[in-house]
Amino acid sequence: MALIRDLYAIEADIRGNDPATRLAVRQERSAPILARIDTWLSHHRARASAKSPLGEALAYIAKYRNGLGRFLTDGRVELDSNTVERTIRPIALNRKNALNRKNALFAS
After folding, report:
1. Total of domains in the chain
2. Out of 43, 66, 72, 86, which residue is the most buried by the measure of CB atoms under 10 Å away?
3. 59, 51 in Cβ contact below 8 A?
4. CA separation for the pair 32, 7 (Å, rounded)
5. Which whole-number Å values give the CA distances from 52 to 16, 35, 64, 105, in the listed order?
6. Domain of 64?
7. What does pTM read for this prediction?
């Protein structure tokens, strides 16, 4: 968790900078952290049973690992999709509420 916290701290430091600057900082500061995460993941996957809950969680992380590294190759890409999710949440909630009202009207 500390390594992921460090990645988010770096992102907070570079937020608002142009993509080229963000990319340079990420390659300098975030790439080594991601390499440490890879080492940690490999070490723990080798020790955990693949059928255990921990083994399944580690396999899930490994499956999506390449997507995590994408932010190291493009300064425009965010570390996560939280900003987009917050933006579309009202639209999704509005749609859900409209469907619930429609179903309530037909059930009456």
Report:
1. 2
2. 72
3. no
4. 10
5. 42, 25, 19, 46
6. 2-77
7. 0.71
Query: 88 and 107 in one domain?
Result: yes
pLDDT by residue for the chain (108 residues), tens only, comes to: 899 999 999 999 999 999 999 999 999 999 999 999 999 999 999 999 999 999 999 999 999 888 888 999 999 988 876 766 667 777 766 666 666 665 655 665
CA distance linking residue 65 with residue 41, whole number of Å: 10
Instruction: Give residue for tokens 């190759």.
Output: 73
What would you report as the CA-atom Rg of the chain, rounded to the nearest whole angstrom?
Answer: 20
- Residues 88, 44 within the same domain: no
Both 42 and 92 in a single domain? no
